[in-house]
Structures are given as C-alpha cells and as structure tokens.
Write a structure and sequence with these properties.
single chain; 217 residues; alpha+beta; GTP Cyclohydrolase I, Chain A, domain 1; GTP Cyclohydrolase I, domain 2; 2 domains; five-stranded mixed beta sheet; 8 helices; 41% helix; 21% strand; binds guanosine-5'-triphosphate; binds zinc ion; GTP binding
Length: 217
Amino acid sequence: MTALSDEAIRVRSALEARGLETPMRSNNLTTAQQQEQITGLMTQVMDVLGLDLEDDSLAETPQRIAKMYVREIFSGLDYTQFPKITLIDNKMKVDEMVQVRDITMTSTCEHHFVTIDGTATVAYIPRGKVIGLSKINRIVQFFARRPQVQERLTQQVLLALQTLLESDDVAVSITATHYCVKARGVMDATSTTTTTSLGGIFKSRQETRQEFLRGVR
Ligand SMILES: Nc1nc2c(ncn2[C@@H]2O[C@H](COP(=O)(O)OP(=O)(O)OP(=O)(O)O)[C@@H](O)[C@H]2O)c(=O)[nH]1
Ligand SMILES: [Zn+2]
C-alpha cells in the first residue's frame, strides 16, 4: 500500500468534515483486483448486448474499459494519486488576485458515466503561501477524474485549495458541456453549464467577486 501524503490526508479530512466527499465505500480491493473484476463484468455487459467478444476489434474492450476506469478517468477516487503540492512562502508579499483561466477539465457524469467537457477558472488571494501554478491544474484534474456532478466538483476544488493555502480566499468557476445532455436524452448540442464556488473575500467583497467573474467571462 502506498502511503498517503500529508496534503492528501488533510484535503480528504476537510471534504469529509464538510460533507463534500464523493460518496465512497472502502472495499479494500487493489488496483489490479479492481481491473480484473471490472474486466469480467464488462465482458458480461458486452455479452448481454449480443456483441461477439471473439471479434479481434472487440476482444480487448473489457480490459480497455477496466484500465480506463481504474487508471484513467476514475483514478481520482484513489488518494494515493493526489498530486504532490508545492507551496512557497509568500516572501514577495503578493496580495492581489492570482487567476488561472481556461484550465482543461474533462470529467465523467456520475449519472450516466459519459463525458463532461469544459474549462475551469481558479483564483486566490495569496496570504502566507503561494502555490505552484501547475498544482492548481493538477488539483482540478484529480477531482475531475471521478464520477461527478459539476456542483460537487466545483466545491471540492474550492475546499482543497482553501485547505492547502490555509485561506478562505479562493474562487472556482467551471463551464462545461455534459454529453449526457448533448449526445443522449434531451440531445441539446448547444447548452453549457456554469457553476461557481466563492470563498472568503470573493463572497463578501463585491469588487473582488466582480473582478473574478469578469475574468471568467
Ligand atoms: N445537477 C446536475 N445534474 C446533472 C449533472 N450531470 C447530469 N445531471 C442530470 O442528472 C439528471 C438525472 O436524471 P434522471 O431523470 O434520473 O435521468 P434520465 O432519465 O437519464 O434523464 P434525462 O437526462 O433527462 O434523459 C439529468 O437531469 C441530468 O441532466 C450535473 O453535473 N449536475
Ligand atoms: Zn449525465
């Protein structure tokens, strides 16, 4: 078992304490066991659909899906995959907003297991610590690699950053296309969904809120 980093433990505890953790139940399966079991179950799904698993193009699909779920699109369920976080002392005394726009965000809808495709904008006001920029993208990616609803994803990124930066002054906005809306069901190809979570001064101070929201648009 890989040990969890201190950051992963703190972020997980903060999410649990606020009721924002993804509903999960520990089953003590290793990654290899998960892949093996999903392969067997996907074989059954394809069988039931009447697909020929001896066809050379289909034969490996159960393994591919198992690998994709466990190691790729749902790997953010595993806190050993939480990114290494670099924080540096704010010796330069930055006290204005740092805003990272148009972060690529690809996730999976937990109701249909199809793609959510969008971008995130994240901002914070540096206090004691400044975070390595790419770590913001990596935190978005980590929580996106779970079955999600966009509202929870937005709040998880907010609370993770608040916990790591030890400051409430963080803002997150995500705009995305849900393929469960676009490619099935209501089949709406043009609508997008924006969700925003504001903390600290972004919530309480009108000018800061406006400055962030201007950057989102
Ligand atoms: N709030 C929220 N809803 C979502 C998200 N992703 C998908 N959904 C919605 O989850 C709902 C599930 O509704 P159901 O009626 O149980 O599922 P369904 O019969 O497939 O519904 P339709 O999509 O309307 O065909 C749908 O309205 C989806 O659009 C999300 O990130 N946030
Ligand atoms: Zn969906």
